[in-house]
Amino acid sequence: MDGDSHRAPPPDPAAYGNCFGCAPGNVRGLRLTFRHDEAGRISTDVCLGRDFESFPGIIHGGIVATVLDEVLARASLHACRLPSMTVGLRLRYVKATRTGQPYVAIAEVQSRDGDLVRLTGRLESATDGLVAVADATFMLLDPARMDAARQGLPEETLESFKRYMREVT
């Protein structure tokens, strides 16, 4: 959102925790990796196996929502240079997401109003086309908001937040 979509992305938050979506060390997670393009869009490739099914051959809708939430969060982070949290996520499932088929999730910022960032995302494949679309609102977590949110959190969580905030801000 600062007009410089060509710069390198901020530090990868996956290194600071056990995120189901993006932490490479979470063997039960999705272990998503992200890339950005010159237009400021963030994308990730995903091919999900049977562990993420609802019915045979079909990926659970909650997993699809998680993939989109992750790429949306990364788009917010890349554009605004602050961590953020989802405050609203609306999905429309267009087609079933199939087990073992490669997909790409793409997200981009649409607007920013103060500490609220509005984004859109989609999941698509070369063979099925559009599979799901998302509209989301994220709240930026500046250092002051992070300080306020820390009350009552476990020490391990606090230390992880502190390390990340030192590197990203």
UniProtKB/TrEMBL annotation:
Task: List the SUPFAM superfamilies.
Answer: Thioesterase/thiol ester dehydrase-isomerase (SSF54637)
Example of a GO MF term: thiolester hydrolase activity
Task: Enumerate the spans annotated as Thioesterase domain.
Answer: 57-131
**Family annotation (InterPro entries):** HotDog_dom_sf, PTE-AB_protein, Thioestr_dom
Which PANTHER family does UniProt cross-reference here? THIOESTERASE DOMAIN-CONTAINING PROTEIN (PTHR47260:SF6), UPF0644 PROTEIN PB2B4.06 (PTHR47260)
**Name the UniProt record assigns to this protein:** PaaI family thioesterase
